[in-house]
């Protein structure tokens, strides 16, 4: 059985990709596929998982995948220490990032950049479908493109098929580069050293694990219990909860002070200030609590708020 584990955020199309992969594989009369998601009640942008199982016999095991042949991160910020525990021996982990990675089991693909170029939006799911069409034996380009035609709206066919074809070409290029480096010996012991946006590899130090209070083997004293489980109001176990990939940017010259952003923000991350702040407007944004949902930008009728990529904001 070939098992694929998809890590993404709500709205990135992880489950859609899992279903399309299963549909592509099942176009072969000798293959069976199963695809299903795993998520809680969180809103758009929250981490979620999806799974695809492909086999030559009917699949009776409908449990979540814990070790996979391919692990895919549609959002590179979800890659955390311990990622290798989800890989089967010989497995590959594909990550949506333009950064370089330094482990031969990690394949970096700038899926957001490719999707933005061809689709106008950073929707990375079909980029990884194209990568799997090149890397996995259970699907090929023709089956993936046919699955897109059968299961996606007609208006999305052309763009996503172009994405698949470009992704296949990039992975083919990466494979050739890797073979040339191995043969040349100049980069021996340094897998992917010459890779750029596709195969550049670097070990991520990002951790999405929130700090949790210490657990005791015995019942603690009340004071010790309070110190490890009680926090002041507004305490975050992890700033931003790791959800945001875009952030609101306020254009002070366009802001009229109507407070619609303040009223509609579901997390209370936009707050009123006394008089006006240093930018000359009557609201401010608490980026520690903002989840990047974009409700404020949609509510603003004066285009005073826009959503900017989080990566750009961090670089600035």
UniProtKB/TrEMBL annotation:
Tell me the GO molecular function terms.
4 iron, 4 sulfur cluster binding; oxidoreductase activity, acting on the aldehyde or oxo group of donors, iron-sulfur protein as acceptor
Alphabetical list of Pfam families matching this protein: Fer4_7 (PF12838), POR (PF01558)
Q: Does the keyword Magnesium apply?
A: no
Keyword list, A-Z: Oxidoreductase, Pyruvate
Q: Which residues form the 4Fe-4S ferredoxin-type domain?
A: 246-276, 281-310
Looking up InterPro entries in the UniProt record yields:
4Fe4S_Fe-S-bd, Oxidoreductase_gamma_subunit, PorC_KorC, PorD_KorD, Pyrv/ketoisovalerate_OxRed_cat, Pyrv_flavodox_OxRed_cen
NCBIfam families according to UniProt: PorC_KorC, PorD_KorD
- Specify the protein name: Pyruvate oxidoreductase subunit gamma
Question: What is the originating organism of this protein?
Answer: Senegalimassilia anaerobia
Upper classification of the organism: Bacteria, Bacillati, Actinomycetota, Coriobacteriia, Coriobacteriales
